[in-house]
Inverse folding.
C-alpha cells in the first residue's frame, strides 16, 4: 500500500467468520427483464448514525445472493434535509461519490408548486404545518385539473395530512382539505370488507376469513404508523373484532391522540 498505517507493526492477522444477519429491505424496485438493474430505495426521516452501514450491507448482500438476476445495482437515499444524514460518512466516501449511490434532500428540490406532482407529494411531508394546508389543497386541485386525475394522489395527500396533524379530529382534517376522508381508498377498503359479511357457505366462508384478516392487517398497520409498536394484548383484541367493528375502528382511530384512547375504545367493546 502507498500509505500504510503508522502502527502497521501492531496489527494482528486473523481469519474471521462473518455471520450474516437477516435484513428486511423495504424499498426494492425489481426489473421485469433478466439482467436488468435493481434499485434499492431508503427513505430516512430520522437521524441514524449507522444508516450507511446497514444500507450498503443489505443491498450488496441481496445483490450477491441474486447476482444471476441483475446486471447492476443502484441505491437512492431520500432525506428531508442534509441535517438528517449520518454524521460520519468518511468510511463510505467512495460509494457516496459514485454514480451508483444517489442522495436526495427534499428541502433542496425547490418550490413545491413547481415540481412534478409525485415529487411534490414527498416534499409535502417536510412542509411546515403553517404552510401544509395550503400546499395540500393546491396539490388536490392540481390533481383534479390534470387529466387523467389520480385517486392515489388524493389518498397520499390525505394520509400525509392525517399523520402531520395527529391532534386534529377527522372532521377538522376534512374541513381543512375540503374533502371527505371516507371517500379515500383506505376507508373504502374497510367498507368493502364489511359488505362481504353476506357470504356464508363453503369456500365463501373462507373468503370472509381472508378478507377479515386483511382488515385486521390494515388497521394494525395504520395504528403502528401513528403510535408505534402495539402490545400483544392490543393485537389480540383487534384480531377478535368483527368486520363491522373493524370498519368502526378505522374511522374512530383518526380521533385517537395516543394508545390510551385506543385501549379505552377496545375496552368499551
Amino acid at each position: 500500500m502507498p500509505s500504510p498505517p503508522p502502527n502497521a507493526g501492531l496489527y494482528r492477522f486473523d481469519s474471521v467468520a462473518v455471520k450474516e444477519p437477516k435484513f428486511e429491505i423495504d424499498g426494492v424496485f425489481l426489473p421485469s427483464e433478466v439482467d436488468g438493474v435493481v434499485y434499492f430505495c431508503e427513505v430516512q426521516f430520522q437521524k441514524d448514525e449507522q444508516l450507511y452501514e446497514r444500507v450498503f450491507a443489505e443491498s450488496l448482500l441481496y445483490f450477491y445472493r441474486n447476482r444471476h438476476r441483475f446486471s447492476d445495482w443502484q441505491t437512492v437515499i431520500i432525506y428531508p434535509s442534509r441535517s438528517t444524514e449520518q454524521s460520519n460518512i468518511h468510511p463510505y466516501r467512495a460509494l457516496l461519490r459514485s454514480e451508483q449511490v444517489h442522495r436526495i434532500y427534499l428541502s433542496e428540490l425547490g418550490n413545491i408548486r413547481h415540481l412534478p406532482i409525485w415529487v411534490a407529494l414527498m416534499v409535502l411531508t417536510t412542509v411546515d404545518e403553517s404552510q401544509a394546508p395550503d400546499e395540500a389543497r393546491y396539490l388536490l386541485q392540481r390533481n383534479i385539473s390534470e387529466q387523467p386525475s389520480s385517486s392515489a394522489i388524493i389518498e397520499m395527500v390525505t394520509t400525509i395530512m392525517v399523520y402531520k396533524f395527529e391532534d386534529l379530529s377527522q372532521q377538522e382534517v376534512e374541513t381543512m382539505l375540503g374533502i371527505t376522508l371516507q371517500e379515500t381508498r383506505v376507508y373504502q377498503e374497510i367498507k368493502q370488507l364489511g359488505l362481504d359479511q353476506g357470504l356464508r357457505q363453503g369456500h365463501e366462508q373462507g373468503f370472509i376469513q381472508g378478507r377479515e384478516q386483511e382488515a385486521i392487517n390494515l388497521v394494525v398497520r395504520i395504528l403502528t404508523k401513528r403510535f408505534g409498536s402495539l402490545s400483544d394484548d392490543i393485537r389480540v383484541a383487534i384480531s377478535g373484532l368483527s368486520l363491522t367493528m373493524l370498519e368502526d375502528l378505522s374511522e374512530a382511530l383518526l380521533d385517537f391522540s395516543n394508545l390510551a384512547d385506543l385501549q379505552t375504545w377496545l375496552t368499551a367493546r
User: Anything to note?
Assistant: Confidence is low (pLDDT under 50) at residues 195-204. The first helix runs from residue 51 to 65. The two ends are 70 Å apart (CA to CA).
